[in-house]
Amino acid sequence: MSERAIRSSSEAEGGADSPRPAADARAASPRATRSTTGVAVGLLLALLAVLVLAAGWHLTQGTSGAVLADADVLWGSRVPRLAAGVAVGIALGVAGLLMQSLARNALASPDTLGVTAGSYLAVTAVAAFGIAVPFWASGFVAFAGGLAAAALVLGLAGGAGTSTTRLVLAGSALALAFQACTSTLLVLFAEETKGLLAWGSGSLSQLGLESFLRAAPVVVVCVVLALVMSRRLDVLALGDDTASSLGVPIRSTRMFGILLSVLLTATAVTLAGPIGFVGLCAPVLARLLARVVPALGRHLLLIPLSGLIGAIVVILADALLRALIGPEGAISVPTGVATTIFGAVVLVVMARRLRDSGPTRQPPTIRIGVRSGRRFAVVVIAGAVALIAIVLVGMLLGSTRLLTGDILLWLQDAAPPRIAFALDERAPRVIAAVVAGAALGLAGSVTQAVSRNPLADPSLLGITGGAGLGAVLVVTSATATTLGMLVAAVIGGLLAFALVYALAWRGGHSADRFILIGIGVSYGVVALTTFVLLRSNPWDTPKIYTWLSGTTYGRIWEQVIPLMIVLAVALPFAFAHRRELDILTMDEDTPRLVGIRLERTRLLLLVTAAVLAALSVVAVGVIGFVGLVAPHAARALVGARHGRVIPVAVLLGAVLVGAADTLGRTVIAPAQLPAGLVVALIGAPYFVWLLWRSRDA
Fold first, then answer.
1. Which domains does the chain have, with CATH numbers?
2. pLDDT per residue as tens digits for the range 628-686
3. 540 versus 549: which is more confidently predicted?
4. Which residue, 221, 216, 312, is CA-closest to 268?
5. What is the pLDDT of residue 365?
6. Is the Cβ–Cβ distance between 480 and 543 less than 8 Å?
7. Which of 189, 287, 311, 467 has a beta carbon 3.0–4.6 Å from 89's, enabling a disulfide?
């Protein structure tokens, strides 16, 4: 079989960037295969030597200097940290390879399938509710959480063989939902979950070798079992039909492989927390080496190769982090931050290689019938009434219960001091919530139309994360001001958008490539935000973390008015382009045929969405799911025409965030739950339903 034929087969099976079939080496002659086997083994030995050298460098680092002769320092801290890094790297490398091979998808990994986030949520829930469990039981909890996450993502995405964009989008969005649930537990049970915030980004810090000695046998057994099924994986890479005709039981092979992958991921999470993207980077690098040395394409060698590369990535990331910012500074920065940034780069590079062909051309859709004009009028009136009710209830409820007459007195500047104080503090919060919700609803409508994907969202395209990073950089500085935070958020959001737009450009824009690169940039800026957060003043960490979860606490009019002005301009601008938005949702060719300047229109609309999303971060912090849920709910209610979708999405976004803010302030009063977490808890079930409805479309 020629290389061109192999590439065509790969594209037909799982998208343009599916892993090259592991049978590349089998396609060559037996003599050629034997001649490269020695090279492959030599390369494995060379990588083992690299790991040994990296481990030696790693052992010389620490807060006490290069004191290798000190047995207490060596065996009490450095060796356990190194051992944990090696075990985690091998586990995640092999887990990622199994997921990619079983899905025939080069972007499948424990992170992009939500397995890591599911395991972390399960561990956090056990800690939050005060359930004391031994190590093996905590590993089982992480395994159960990761397995449930993998089953949910694969089931909702349409199976392991679904397209790259759909699989990554489903996994990333559900990972956001899991992270929101985890953040809710961290906020509500701060005392019980103390220390899990830093651990939640992946930390190799160990108190001894006990945890490693318990985890190592699990990793070894799983790797051995993976090697046993390597022959099946080689055949499965040729396609389900071919593998079935050759006697490979497809369903049981996939099920057993996913169980092994989740067990490896859960073991890594239990040992060192959720260290991000090693499961993506290691298999990708291993397959790149397999293109140079074809014998490595067989899973019997590819599995240990991925494990070795995973261990090298983790150890070097930890060593480089401590070398760059010093051992003392690295104490507060988890290793997972560095690996996530590296993984985000790999995700972007892989997305740029995505070809505009195959099943990834078909975005997930929902069949929406035509809606009548009367229905549109009823929905708009109902939405407006609900919005007025939400504003009124938000003004009345809080630590001090008020009456409608109190609001009238306050508007006339005749309210008693206690009531005036309560409303002066409450009014900016309520207005910030509804205005930011409206802005996110509009931004999501534009983003989904331009990207031609109803599962897209400004938070998944890096815009919200970039704005959050810019704002955090100002908040953690000594000269933080409202104007500075406003400017930094806008610049951060626009820079993130510009980066996504530039990286996605290859003689034009592919909607799938644009979304995948946006997800990669989003992961990267979130990791950088975590880095800045953990390096900031520890006394400011809870406040900043709460703000990043989306909150209206302490809002002032200076933070809300700029967003109100921009929304007042952007709303008629987007409505004026409703026809272009309708046509952009069709395909790449129709807009050009009807005379629309495609790239110019797309750029203007996306810049509008980016500015709205960035300013909403200043008003209410980082809130996800609104830009995802509100536009889709609007289409379900009034049809797909943007002349109707835009006003309804704006109303629904305002109602959703306004209701979430009121619930967060009142349900557990006097404590408060950030509005962003309430939105995620409301939006996640709807998103699950949306994915379920769209999986066969």
1. 3-354 (1.10.3470.10), 374-694 (1.10.3470.10)
2. 889 988 988 888 888 999 999 999 999 999 999 898 888 777 777 788 888 877 777 77
3. 549
4. 216
5. 45
6. no
7. 311
Percent of the chain predicted with pLDDT > 70 = 84
User: Is the separation of the CB atoms in 285 and 305 below 8 Å?
Assistant: no
How far is the CA of 610 from the CAs of 422, 510, 570, 657, in angstroms?
A: 33, 19, 11, 19
SS3 517: helix
pLDDT tier, 511 (very low <50, low <70, confident <90, very high otherwise): low
CB atoms within 10 A of CB 134: 9
The 3-state DSSP class for residue 435 equals helix
CA distances from 165 to 155, 589, 673 (A): 15, 21, 33
Q: Tens of pLDDT along 442-460?
A: 999 998 888 777 767 787 7
Q: Are 200 and 121 in contact (CB under 8 A)?
A: no
CA distances from 60 to 4, 56, 67, 204 (A): 48, 7, 7, 16
pLDDT beyond 70 at 11: no
| pLDDT tens digits along 660-676 | 989 888 877 777 778 88
Q: What is the pLDDT of residue 540?
A: 65
Backbone angles phi, psi at 509, to 5 degrees: -115, 130
Distance CA 458, CA 612 (A): 10
Q: Residue by residue, what is the 3-state secondary structure of 640-669? A: CCHHHHHHHHHHHHHHHHHHHHHHHHHCCC
- C-alpha closest to that of 465 among 549, 531, 526, 543: 526
Residue 238 and residue 297: Cα distance in Å, rounded? 13
pLDDT surpassing 50 at residue 55: yes
CA gap 639, 617 in Å, rounded: 29
Give the chain's length. 697
In the chain, the amino acid numbered 467 is A
Average pLDDT of span 316-337: 79
Q: What tokens appear for 91 in the block?
A: 């586990």
Helix, strand, coil: what percent of the chain each, to 5? 75, 0, 25
What's the rounded Cα separation, in Å, for the pair 152 and 32?
Answer: 43
Q: Picking from 30-34, 255-259, 417-421, 465-469, which range would have the lowest pLDDT averaged per residue?
A: 30-34
What's the whole-number mean pLDDT along residues 548-569?
A: 86
Question: Which phi and psi angles does 416 have, rounded to 5°?
Answer: -60, 155
Any bridge partners for residue 74, and if so which?
A: none
d(CA 333, CA 318): 10
Position 390, amino acid: I
Residue 505 bridge partners (DSSP): 509
Structure confidence at residue 39 (pLDDT) = 84
Over residues 183-211, mean pLDDT: 76
Which 8-state DSSP code applies to residue 505? B
Whether the predicted pLDDT of 65 surpasses 60:
no
Helix axes 557-576, 642-666, angle to 10 degrees: 160
Distant-in-sequence, close-in-space partners of 56: CB < 8 Å, separation ≥ 6? none
**HEC readout, 534-586:** HHCCCCCHHHHHHHHCCCCCCCCHHHHHHHHHHHHHHHHHHHHCHHHHHHHCC
Return the C-alpha torsion angle 545, 547, 549, 553, nearest 10. 130
Confidence band (pLDDT; 50, 70, 90) for 21?
A: very low
One DSSP character per residue, 223-260 reads HHHHHHTHHHHHHHTT-HHHHHHTT--HHHHHHHHHHH
Give pLDDT, residue 439: 95
